[in-house]
Every structure is written in C-alpha cells, then in structure tokens.
Amino acid sequence: MLPVDLQILKYIFIEKPIYYFKMKPYFETEEYNNLCTYMENRGESNSSDFLKEREYTVFDLETTGFLPEIGHEVLSIGAVRIDGEGQKSGEMHQLIRPIRPVPNHILSLTNLSREDLEGAESFITGFQKFLSFSENSTLVAHPAHFDVRFLRAMVKRWKLPEYSPACIDSQMMAKYTLPGVSHRLDPLLNHFNIHNLERHHALNDATMTARLFTELLRIAEKDYFITSYSVLQQKINEQ
C-alpha cells in the first residue's frame, strides 16, 4: 500500500478525474435530482430534547478505507432503528456499488465478492434508502466521528446538499459513562455480555452497537442530569 502522501497525490491527479467521469452520468438522472430535492426539504429531526422520547438510528459502514477525502468509498450501510427504551422497530442492510475497484484485502475483510458489489445499488440509491430509514431520528455510531464524517465526505463528493445530522458518538459516550473500560467496541461488548456477531458486516455491527447504546443510555440516565440530548452532548464533548 502506498504511503498516505502518495495516495493523496494519486487521488488528486489520477483518480479524482476518473471518479468525476464515472459519476457524471448520475448527475443527470431523475433519481439524483429527487435526492437533492429531498435533502434540501428535509426538516429537523427529533423536536424533543429528552433522550427517552427520541428515536435512534444506530448504523455502521463498511468502506474501502479510512480516508474518504482521498477517494475511499462506502461498500455497505447497516442500520437498526430503536426507541429510547431500546426497542427495535426496523433494520436495513444495503450494499453499495463502488466507483473504483475494491482492493482484495477489503473484500476478504468484509466477506464481500466483486459479484455482490457489481449487483448492488449506486450510492445515490443506497443513501436515499438510508435517509428515508433514518428520517426523524438521531444517528448513533461507534465511533460517529468516522462514520458520520465518511458519509458527509461522500455527500460532498457527489455534490449533494450539505448533510449535518444530529448524532451521538457511542464511543465517546462509553468513555464518559465507563471511564475504567476500554471504549473500543469489542471490550464493551464483552463488558455487557453482548453476543458477538460476525464482525465487519455492517448490519451485525449496527445490531451490536444498538444493544451497547441501550446499555450506555441506561447508565447515563442514572445520573439525573443526563436526561436530555443537549446535556449528554455537552458531557461527551468534555471528554
């Protein structure tokens, strides 16, 4: 694998023009225009500030790398919809067809085949499904600073309207509520005896994170100050 600085140069001078050339036909489709309109008219989610009264979409991404700014892409989105008590009301798992070829080690890690991805939906279609599924909810990811940042970078690359969803970083929440426990996902799952599903599958990881988030929410709410979204975010930001 090339050093990051060479990856950046390769993306700017070689891959970015290729991306644009392959993405350009999508910009002229009705589906793309509909998505832009939907995002522009999408209202604020979760008018209530109380954690128990909110709906949550706990999600996870599988990607071709860690740096969307240099062309890494989303391969799949897994999401679970829960309420403030942790009751599940739905789930989704969507494969995304990438623009550029996927490295073999990523296919091996995610247990996806090139055939799986060739038959998958475009990012435009997959992201529309995710937006519809997560409408009027607060996003939760572990860690959110990766998954939400990745989606925002993809949105920018596809020249879509700005995407700034309400979200909770369950990794930082664990750091606040369980200071003596590693805030990585696997140790937290073991701490709460949450059944470990096959990793690096977006829906599996989202399912486990949803169970973890429910446990963290219960711990946070034992502190009578932590009953609102705004206060929880303040505490998380202090970490």
UniProtKB/TrEMBL annotation:
Per UniProt, residues of the Exonuclease domain are 55-222
Q: Which SMART domains match?
A: EXOIII
> What CDD domains does this protein map onto?
DEDDh
Name the InterPro entries on file.
Answer: DnaQ, Ribonucl_H, RNaseH-like_sf, RNaseH_sf
Query: Could you tell me which SUPFAM superfamilies the record lists for this protein?
Result: Ribonuclease H-like (SSF53098)
Instruction: Give the UniProt keywords, A-Z.
Output: Exonuclease, Hydrolase, Nuclease
Q: What is this protein called?
A: DNA polymerase-3 subunit epsilon
The organism is: Salimicrobium album
The upper taxonomy is: Bacteria, Bacillati, Bacillota, Bacilli, Bacillales
